[in-house]
Amino acid sequence: MAAEAAAAERGRKVVVAIDESDVSLYALRWALDTLFIPWAAGAPDHHHERPTSSLSQLTHLTLLHVQQPFHTYFFPSGPGPAAALYTPTSIIDSVKKAQEENTNALFARALRVCEDRMVKAVTMVMEGDPKDMICHAAEQINPDLVVVGSRGLGKVKRALLGSVSDYCAHHVKCAVLIVKPPPTHTHK
Prior knowledge:
The protein has seven helices and seven strands. By secondary structure, the protein is α/β, with parallel strands linked by helices.
């Protein structure tokens, strides 16, 4: 009991991996509404009174975004094995600036979702393969829980492309929550 009280006192650490997909923002919303705020913003709870200190104050939320690295390519510029042309610095700078702008826009959307639910969050950007970087971030942060969205790849696509959520479930050394989006209903 003393260990549980100490853990509750220090708060819980939660990492939510986000990207540009609607699935990841759905996972963030689901995590906030389910894990952080048992009384969703504006929703009355007739069975319990709101606590004086909300879960959002006792939980440390990190929003993690992993960027794909920009690979510099070499192109032949003439005959012979010694001739090569590299990607100009202006193109590299342009791509990095676009990545930074996309990341800032993504975090703005995600932080707005957190603010709407009165949850404070910190942001973290890593570069590399999302599967590996989420695992690496979990080792650095040592969270109690990592939340990832599931795109719902079919068996064939998952086998060919791999699944970030499946990989994290098997390699992250803490609890991993995979949030699936709600089924979409199509009218025929």
